[in-house]
Amino acid sequence: MAASASMILQSPIMANVIVFKAAEHPIKSVTIFKSSKAEVVRTFRIDLAQGQNKIEIKGLSSFIDPLSVRVSGLGEARLYDVVCRVETSLGPHGVAAHEFDDASEVIRLLHVKRDELAQRKEIRLQEKTLLLQYAESLKGEHVPPTQMIEFMKTYITQSQKNVEEVAKLDAEILGVDRDIGKEEEKVMTKKGQVNGRVDVVIVADGEVKVDLVLTYIVSNAQWQPTYELHAKTENGKPSPLVKLHYRARITQSTGEDWTDTSLTLSTVSGTDAHTIPSLKTVKLSPKSYDVTNAKKKAEFVANVKGTRFQQIAELPKHAQQQQRHYAQQQQYQPQQQFQANCSSIQQDQPVQHMMMQMAQIAPQYDAYSEDEFEEVATVGPAPVTIAEPTTIVNETPVAVTFSVHGESTIPSDGIDHQVSVAILPFESVISYITIPKIDPRVYLQCRVKNSSDYRLLPGSVRVIFDDSFVSTTRISDINTGDDFECTLGDDAATKVTYSRTLKTEKSSGGAFTETTNTTTYITKITVHNKHAFDIDDLVVRHIIPMCEDRRGQVILRKPDGLAAAKVGQTVSLQGGLKVAWTKSDGNDSKGGDKEGRYEWTWKVSSGGKVNLEAEWDVKVPGESAWHEVQV
Q: What is the SS3 assignment for 225?
C-alpha cells in the first residue's frame, strides 16, 4: 500500500522518505467541540525501513494547531521528531499549490479523455462521409445488379453501426463534461485551504509495518443541537407517546472533507486548561489613600497667598474632631449639642468666607478644583455604605458527549449538514389551554418529561403533529427527569365563547367627599367539548386589571374565594371546578395575585359544556377618565 498510495524517495541523509497526500487516506474519526474546534484522527499504513524514516504528510487543514499534533501507533519503532507547519505557497483561487496541482491533474486527465472520445467520434463521422462518397461514385453501367444489392446491405449495416457508435461517443463525452464541471466546482466552491503539513521522523530497528495514527486539532468546525418532536393521534385523541428526534447541525470549512467518518459531538470547549487552581491568600486592609492627589492639594494650598488660606487645609481634621466630640455628647445633651453646633458655625464664618473666595479662585486650577472643594466642604463623618447581600454562584460544568451512529460525510463547504443523534420515545401530558380574552381558541400543550439518559442542550424544536408541521419553539437545558413544553397547534373541535359587560355608577360628592365612579365588569366564558372523548385537563386563563395608583381600587368578587387565596393555593368551586392564581410569565418574582393572573382547571366530558364567570369592581375618582393599559 505504501508503494501505491505514497511516493518513496531515496536520500543520502534519510534512508527512507515517504510522502503521503492526506486526501488519499481516509479520516478515521472526528470529535467536534463547542469551541469551534475539532479533533481529527487519521491513519497511515507505512512500511518502515531499518534506520531513520521520514514521513511527509501534505494536504492537511490550514487551520491545524501545530501544538496539538500527536503521533502514535508505532509499535516497537521510536518517534524521533515531529514538525508541523502551514505552507504559504498558493495556486489560483487561493488554493494550496499542491492541492491545485492535484485538482488540475484530474481535470487535465478528463480533458485528455474527452479529446480521445472526440477523435473517435470524428473518425466515425469521416467513415460515414467516405462510405457515402463511395456509394455516390457507383454507377449502373459499371456495377452488376447483384453486387449493387450486396453493397446496399453492407452500406445499411455499416451506417447503422456508425450511428450507434457516434451516439455512444456523444453520451460518453457528455459524461466527461459533467465530471469536468464537478471537479471545477469543487475547486471553486470548497471552503478552507489545505496548506498544513506534518513531517515525522521514525527510527526502526528493522523492516516493519506500522499503522501510524496522526491526531490534531483544527478550527472552523461547529455543531448545534436541533430537535424534531413527532406527535400523533389515536382515534382522534392526541397520544401521550411522543418521539423526539435528536439531531445536530454540523458546519465545517477546515479544507478537509470528512468522508465516511465516525463523528463524536462534545460539549467540552476543547481549549480549557485542565489544571487544579490554587487558592491565594486574602487579606483585609483599609482602602489606600491617594498620596499623589494629596500632594497636589498641598501644593495648591501652598501656592495661594495669605495665611488665612492655610487654615482651610486643616479644616477637615478640626471639623472631624468637633464631630466626634458632638457625637459623644449627643445622647446626653441634645439641646446643648444643637447650641454648640450653632456657635461652631458662627465661629467658622471667617473660614467659610475664605472658602467662598477659594471657590472663585479654584476654576483657574481645573486639575484640583473638584477634588479640593469636595473635601473641604465635608465637615461631618463620611456616611456608612450598607452593602446589599451578594451571592456568587459557581456551578460545576457538565460535559456531554454524543456519538453519531454509523459513518457520516461532512464536506468542507461551510453549509449546515444535519446528522441524527438519537430517537427518544417520551411520555407526555396533553393539556387543553385557552385564553379567550385574547383568542377564543383551544391550544394543545404537550408537557414532555425527559426520561432518557441524554441531556437535552438548548436548541430549536420543530413540532410535527400527524406528519404535518405545526410550529417551531426553543428549549433550554433539559436534564434527565426535567420537563419541557411544546404547542401542538389548536383544537378545532372545542368551541369557546367569550363576552364581557360593564356597568358604571357615579356617586356625587358632597362638601367633604369627592365624586367616584364604580364600574362593574362581568366576564362570561363557555367551553363546549365536541370531541367523542373527555377532556381531562382543561385550563382557562384570564386576567383582571390591577391599579398601582392609590386613588383607584379593584375589588374581585368572582370567582368566589380567589381574592383571599394566596399564590399556589387552589380554590375548589362547585362541580369539581378549581381556580388559582398563576405565576408571572416573566422571570421576576411577582405572583399572579400581584398581576391579576389566574386560571380555571376542569375536566369536561364528551359533548359537555362548562360555564365560567368572573366579576370585579373598579372604583376610581370621577374627575378624570381612567382606562386599561396593557404592559
A: strand
Q: Which three cell numbers stand for residue 384?
A: 456608612
- Mean per-residue pLDDT over the chain, rounded: 78
Cα separation of 557 and 576, whole Å? Answer: 20
The three cell numbers of residue 499 are: 363576552
Do the strands 27-32 and 37-48 form a parallel or antiparallel pair, or are they unpaired? antiparallel
The conformation of residue 7, written as its DSSP 8-state character, comes to E
Work out whether strand 51-60 and strand 16-21 pair parallel, antiparallel, or are unpaired: parallel
Of 440, 471, 475, give the one whose Cα is nearest residue 456.
Answer: 475
Q: Which residues of 450-480 are buried (b: 16+ CB within 10 A; e: fewer)?
A: bebebbbbebebbbbbeeeebeeeebeebee
- Model pLDDT for residues 107-156, shown as the tens digit of each residue: 888 999 999 999 988 988 888 888 888 777 777 677 777 777 787 888 88
Looking at the predicted structure, is the pLDDT value of residue 302 above 70? Answer: no
Annotate 382-417 with three-state secondary structure: CCCCCCCCCCCCCCCCCCCEEECCCCEEECCCCCCE
Which residue do the cell numbers 368551541 mark? 495
**pTM above threshold 0.90:** no
Q: What single letter denotes the amino acid at residue 328?
A: Q
> What dihedral angle (degrees, nearest 10) is formed by the CA atoms of 256, 259, 265, 266?
-40
Residue with cell 473517435: 120
What does the pLDDT read at residue 281? Answer: 87
Give me 184's grid cell. 471545477
Phi, psi torsion values for 416, nearest 5 degrees:
-65, 130
Q: What is the pLDDT of residue 34?
A: 86
Which grid cell is 431? 393539556
Q: Report, as an integer, the average pLDDT of 419-428.
A: 91
Q: Helix, strand or coil for residue 163?
A: helix
Phi, psi of 483 (to 5 degrees): -110, 155
* One-letter amino acid of 607: G
Q: What percent of the chain is helix, strand and coil (3-state, nearest 5)? A: 30, 40, 35
The kind and range of the H/E element at 106 are: helix 97-137
Mean pLDDT over 460-480 rounds to 91
C-alpha cell of residue 295: 500632594
pLDDT band at 77 (very low <50, low <70, confident <90, very high): very high
- The answer to whether the CB of 61 falls within 8 A of the CB of 237 is no
CB count, 10 Å around CB of 611? 10
Task: Quote the pLDDT of residue 291.
Answer: 57
- For the residues 240-252, what does the mean pLDDT come to? 93
Tens of pLDDT, residues 272-285:
556 777 888 888 88
Q: For strand 553-558 and strand 609-621, is the pairing parallel, antiparallel, or unpaired? A: antiparallel
What is the DSSP code (8-state) at residue 379?
A: -
